[in-house]
Amino acid sequence: MTSKAKTTSPVQQASTPPVVHDLEDAIELMFFAYRDFVADADRILADHNFGRAHHRVVHFVGGNPGLSIAELLDILQVTKQSLARVLRDLIASGHVRQEIGANDRRKRLLYLTASGHCLHENLIAPQMARFSQMRETISEEEFQIWARVMAGIVSPENRETVNRQLCRTQNSENRKIRLFRDETAPTDPTT
Q1: Exposure string (b/e) for 96-116, b if CB count within 10 Å is 16 or more?
Q2: Is 60 exceeded by the pLDDT of residue 183?
Q3: Domain ranges, ordered by start, for the chain
Q4: Domain 21-137 has CATH 3.30.479.10
Q5: Tens digit of pLDDT for each residue in 10-65?
């Protein structure tokens, strides 16, 4: 007798999470989650002959119009040379444009073009769908625990940069959150 394998969606599979016995299991789980999280974007990027470095630039410039090159270097923690190569590709392809800063003419400010916005939306849509589907299967408390775990994995020396970035991109009032607390910050993770 043959049995037909039942296929399930990622959300259905996630409803029965694997048992994580140790840190190696946790690391492997994070690897697999990241692999699948970026897979959809990788396919879209390949159609443009772009890679993950291009995706990172499009993501952060898309969420932060007018981001300076210095700020982008701080976020990405890459060399000027490697960022210059990626920016050259994105500018040449018409996805990103540079403007000279109004207050400081030495600054180069980055913006997505119309095609850059389209690419950004196409890249983020499947990732948003994954998060939206997952959010339907867990409580708010579980989601906040996940956020604390992700925040805890960020290196201590990078936490302030991450906080600044999250605060900068959280335009709507209902998205204000500080993931890393200091002695003067409230203990509620949603404030």
Answers
A1: beeeeeeeeeebbbbbbeeeb
A2: no
A3: 21-137, 138-191
A4: no
A5: 444 455 777 888 899 999 999 999 999 999 999 999 999 999 999 999 999 999 99
